[in-house]
Design brief:
mainly alpha
């Protein structure tokens, strides 16, 4: 079952405990913002514009935040950025409670919050390698991701239950309150200054470029990023879920089918986290990434061929399980195969890849689904993932044999 070995270390336990509450709280805001924008405009297009407004600052500040995380005390950076996220959630509550109904204000607040999150994520993830021994990194990543994926399930369900009873403003306020708990947990962490004293002077854009050069010279890192890009860009069909729910799975009820499709991948990921004891102690990290991404592609192809909603959920859950395994070992590679003075920048790039891949997939699958039909688009995307990953496995002996 779940490998809980890293929880023996008090600092990691504090960081992990803060993730539990913020994973749910952040989803309250993630549901409230698009809901409020749709209530104001009556347009799904504006919901999409708002999502894009948050993407640009997330990418920009994740890259810069990675450089900053390599040059300052990471605990201090987490304190500042967590405080910024909490303050933004409080401003969300103020504007909603006051009934300002300003789409522009909402988009500005969302952009600011995503900027703070972009700076927070690299420091938070890069800190793991300083809080647990190297051999426990896969288990630590599995624990972190399990509670995050659980938040993706529990948070929206809780938001849906609270909105009719308490209203949107309360969701923003609850998120701000739980962020204070996260702030307290980070306050209790030990100091995490750069191990290299000279690194304290570096936090400019030149260091971001140096980070990309570092990736280009590290074959293992480059392929770990490429594996995630392949899986997400060609094999993430969530943009087609609404069409599938209203056509292929309409006999089960459109709303019911849509909810199951969106919940299936996180459910599989949580199951993978709960069973992390079966794989987190493995040492062949490169081979396991390849196997997990191939399994993801096969599961997505199976989903594309499914005429039954229940088989569709089974295949998507299997894909979620495979994605959890891939994430665990890709993260472990990023945290173990680089020096501490580069971990922040590598995690910044990782944040960009994780955030940008699915959004690019939405565009590609939407176009392919319209041109070829949903079944062909999904199945072909899954099979393409398999072919590309097997090609990497065949041509990259170093990545295939990478172990710790």
């Amino acid at each position: 079952m779940m490998d809980t070995t890293p929880l023996r270390h008090r600092p990691f336990r504090r960081l992990w405990s803060s993730t539990i509450v913020t994973a749910v709280g952040s989803q309250l805001t993630a549901v409230a913002v698009p809901t409020q924008i749709y209530d104001i405009t009556g347009s799904s297009a504006w919901v999409g514009y708002a999502s894009f407004a948050g993407l640009a600052p997330l990418i920009l500040f994740a890259l810069w935040g990675g450089a900053v995380a390599d040059s300052v005390d990471r605990r201090t950076l987490m304190l500042v950025t967590n405080a910024g996220i909490a303050a933004t959630s409080l401003l969300f509550w103020v504007q909603s409670f006051a009934g300002l109904d300003s789409t522009a204000l909402l988009m500005v607040l969302l952009a600011v919050q995503q900027a703070f999150f972009g700076m927070n994520a690299p420091a938070r993830t890069a800190s793991l390698a300083r809080l647990v021994p190297g051999e426990e990194l896969p288990a630590a990543n599995a624990l972190q991701s399990t509670v995050t994926q659980t938040g993706l399930i529990v948070g929206p369900l809780l938001a849906g239950a609270l909105i009719p009873v308490l209203g949107l403003p309360v969701l923003y306020l609850l998120d701000a309150i739980v962020l204070l708990a996260a702030l307290w947990a980070v306050w209790l962490l030990p100091a995490l200054p750069p191990l290299d004293a000279a690194a304290r002077r570096r936090a400019g854009w030149g260091e971001i470029v140096a980070g990309f050069r570092y990736i280009a010279t590290r074959h293992i890192l480059l392929l770990s990023f490429l594996a995630d890009v392949i899986a997400m860009v060609f094999g993430m069909p969530r943009a087609l879920f609404p069409q599938l729910a209203s056509t292929t799975y309409a006999p089960w009820g459109e709303g019911f089918a849509l909810g199951l499709l969106f919940a299936a991948i996180p459910l599989g990921a949580v199951l993978g986290g709960l069973m992390s004891g079966t794989f987190s102690r493995a040492r062949r990290h490169g081979l396991l990434v390849i196997a997990a991404v191939v399994a993801w592609g096969l599961a997505i192809a199976g989903f594309g061929l499914s005429g039954s909603l229940w088989w569709a959920v089974v295949f998507l859950a299997a894909a979620g399980f495979a994605d959890m395994v891939s994430m665990v070992f890709r993260s472990a590679i990023l945290q173990s195969a680089v020096t501490d003075d580069m971990r922040g920048r590598m995690q910044g790039v990782f944040t960009v890849v994780v955030a940008g891949g699915p959004r690019l997939a939405d565009l590609l699958h939407g176009m392919a689904g319209s041109a070829l039909g949903t079944r062909v688009a999904v199945t072909a995307g899954g099979l393409l993932v398999v072919v590309l990953m097997l090609l990497i496995a065949a041509t990259s002996r170093d990545f295939r044999r990478y172990a710790v």
